[in-house]
Design a protein that fits this description.
This protein has one domain. The protein is about 20% helix and about 25% strand. It has a four-stranded antiparallel sheet with strand order 1-2-3-4, with helices on one face.
Length: about 100
């Protein structure tokens, strides 16, 4: 399954093109601050494994005023590099934990 193009941002890490996205509106459990802010990264061509990253803060649009975070390109780049370090490969459809 590919990310929709609308609402995604492009990033290039070590010569590899990716698209990433944060949900504009929180899910119910993110809105209640029961689940953390997360974002998804996928190769720009839409093929390959998605990387889902959960952060240590609430979604910025949470409904209870919990401390929130903002996802920046630097955070996305660091997450991709960390995933590569942990053997994630965007070319394979395998799950890494």
């Amino acid at each position: 399954m590919a990310l929709p193009t609308k609402g995604t941002r492009a990033i290039v890490v070590d010569g590899v093109r990716f698209r990433w996205r944060v949900r504009a509106r929180p899910t119910y459990i993110q809105g209640m601050a029961w689940a953390p802010l997360s974002f998804v990264v996928q190769p720009a061509d839409g093929c390959g494994a998605m990387l889902i990253v959960a952060m240590d803060a609430a979604h910025p649009s949470n409904w209870v005023g919990a401390p929130a975070a903002v996802v920046t390109p630097a955070i996305v780049e660091n997450a991709i590099r960390e995933a590569w370090h942990r053997t994630w490969s965007p070319d394979h459809l395998a799950s890494v934990r």
